[in-house]
Amino acid sequence: MFRRAPRRSFFQTYVTKPLVNLISPWAGIDWWLMTVAISLTVIAGLAIRSAQLNVGSTDWWQHWVTGGVGLIIVWRSPALDTRH
Amino acid sequence: MAIARARYQTLIFGHWIIYCLSLVSLIAVMVIGVTANGAQSWIGVGGFNIQPSEFAKVSLILTLAALLHQDTADTIPAIVRTLMVAAVPWFLILLQPDLGTSLVFGAITLGMLYWANANFGWIVLMISPIVSSILFNVFFPAWIIWFGVMGLIAWFTLPWRWIGTVGAMAMNAMAGAGAGILWGLLKQYQKDRLTLFLNPEKDALGGGYHLIQSRIAIGSGQLWGRGLYEGSQTQLNYVPEQHTDFIFSVIGEELGFIGAIAVMFLFWVLCLRLIRTACKTEDNFGSLIAVGVLSMVLFQVLVNVGMTLGVAPITGIPLPWLSYGRSSLLTNFIAIGLVQSVANRTP
Questions:
Q1: Searching chain A, which residue's CA lies closest to the CA of residue B294?
Q2: Is A60 inside a domain boundary?
Q3: Can you tell me the distance from the alpha carbon of B103 to that of B86, in angstroms, rounded to the nearest whole number?
Q4: Per the count of CB atoms within 10 A, which of B47, B131, B223, B287 is most buried?
Q5: Structure pTM?
Q6: From CA B162, how far away is CA B167, in angstroms rounded?
């Protein structure tokens, strides 16, 4: 006799489980840190745009692009194990 | 388990590689660097200017955390070793010359030493020559009191009382008397930055111009601000470098006191979470990383906001996440990423 594995619905198999698998490596991260860093970067983009409106340079959006790259770094970093 | 172990080994034992790479990049700046605003701090790579001194901050945090996580800084040799490791990149950055970033290195080192159980009296003694050099030349009676207090701290905290106390007092006396020589080594714009914040009206169209315009901008924002894209100081470009080091003046003018307080609140939350991570984690290495990042962010915020308000000298320190600059922004995100990796494994 062997125990039959519980049957999963289509939704559980293709939506819930992949989502849980995606988030679980980062389940313990500090969401406040993420939120603050993102909020400050968004505010910075607006402030930089304001400062550049009348000077002819329009590269304020690069701050958001760099922030996006930084966010990817932050998103990948929790995979690092720094424990000793 | 094997992968996690391998990654951990890489990070701990790879700190010397990261440290050496940052030193190589700092030396490269001196050879092929691009000069802007009086400092040779950037390297042109593929059309982008990279500032290695920004990335060196994270490198220093990792290196010091790896050094201090096993041997705490409760002995003089451990402190000397830590200071020697921090002194090399610090000196290279001072040569650029980038006074602001070199000060951030000092803040990171002192913050991490304190967290690694260094005697608080020793930390005070470490910064005492700087205070002595200022007091000796600005207000001599205060220097006499400071000199005496440092002698007492040395007497009660250093292991060899007589030698330690005489050494500490001699160091303070030499720093006070030798400040004039050090002053002569600074560039004129650095001297202006360090002194004009006390009386910017003395050179209103020169060295004090930044500060006067910044204060006008922040003051004109009043409670609710003039509205985004509506600030006259900002739109007419009265504040130089307003999208980089003086970004807080834009926020103060256009978003007002409420907007400025909201930004400060975000930094307050960030610092609280960093402290929480440092306290909660059971791993010394991770805890030291969190404190290193906290020291870096806190010092930069205090000095940058202080300089836009006129209570700190203008030293070219960017406001984390807010000042325009790819290297600075990426460094801050890398630092937060490291803390996230600590937080992710905190029970």
A1: A33
A2: yes
A3: 12
A4: B287
A5: 0.87
A6: 8
